[in-house]
Amino acid sequence: MDPGNGSVDELCEYDTLVARIRPLAMNGVAHLPQRDVHAFARRADVDPKQLATLIAANRLEEKTALPDWFFYALGRRGVRLDLAVMLLLGDQELRNAVNAAVEAGIVVSPSGDDVIDSLLNRLQAVLVRKAFDEPPEHARISIGALLGTSLVEKELQESFLAKYLSRSASPEEFWKSLEKDERFSREAIDDLRFTLQLAWLMCYRLPVLEQFKQLRRSGEVGSLQDLGHLDRTRWSEILDSAAEEDAWVLPETIPGDTPEERLDHYITSLRASIEQLFPSDSLRKALTGVSDGEPNLARFMCNTEDLNEYWENIDAFLRPMKR
Question: Are 237 and 174 contained in the same domain?
Fold first, then answer.
């Protein structure tokens, strides 16, 4: 954004900062070392936080060919200037941040009502491409790699991500909106939703998600609810297979003095999470082993399709017995 011919005091925050810093940045603002931010800020008489944001914005400009003032506006309104982080934000959140920066006098509103729309569309295209880049070794899984563990084709993965980035509604409303898009079948929507749920449950460990992709293809697992049918032995087999591809499988927070203890604790935590999500299935599985010899219990198991809504009553009934 060109500061024009006005004095520094008449300019917006961004233009004032640029007017004072660029004469000192002989190799470009993007190449100012972060470790020297405070020294440069003192020389230019500017806020070091503003300068750090400007440096990050210029580095993103080099990566994306989008203007630095656009990223500066985002950064000054609380958006972390990291493309991987921006992937998690919706189009409306980014739009609100830019508009708020304009209203606060941080940047000057560009001429033309469609300029910000155009920049947001270009950023979305960059983010979609970024999502399918390979992450650095042992970094968090990229969204592209995560969606790659689904069973839908890559073209549909990209369409899904583009819609996700432009969402403005609540999560439930977003999933309902997919049902109105003829590109997404019911099976595809369920698979994508399960993919994201499974990734959260497995702490975004790609080797584990790849193992579950094979189980989904074979039909052994098709939903979170199906995970409740896996016993400890099966969980151990799945995680051991994942560890053969990459030892970086268990979250660092899992306790234990030996690998075996840590694996056992991890399986316990996974099964506990599933039991909390689907208590009736967990109860049904626990009772299945004794129902054959108890006709009344067997009849109860057969006639009761869903115990979840009664779970609080069951807890209340069992609580005195635990004392």
Answer: yes
- Each of the 323 residues of the chain gets a pLDDT tens digit; together they read 544 434 444 689 999 999 999 888 888 899 888 778 888 899 999 999 999 999 999 999 999 999 999 999 999 998 888 886 787 677 788 889 999 999 999 999 777 668 888 999 899 888 877 766 655 544 457 778 888 999 999 999 989 988 887 777 667 788 888 999 999 999 999 999 899 888 878 877 888 899 999 999 999 998 888 888 888 899 999 998 888 766 566 776 677 778 888 888 888 888 877 876 666 565 555 555 544 556 665 565 555 555 554 444 444 444 444 34
Distance from CA of residue 21 to its chain's centroid?
35
Answer yes or no: do 147 and 270 share one domain.
yes
Closest CA to 192 of 219, 174, 170: 174
Domain that holds residue 306: 279-323
The Cα–Cα gap between 92 and 112 comes to: 19
DSSP labels, 215-271: HHHHTS--SGGGGGG--HHHHHHHHHHHHHH-STTS-TT---SSHHHHHHHHHHHHH
Q: 5-19 in b/e burial notation, b at 16+ Cβ within 10 A?
A: eeeeeebbbbbbbbb
The answer to whether residues 100 and 17 belong to one domain is yes
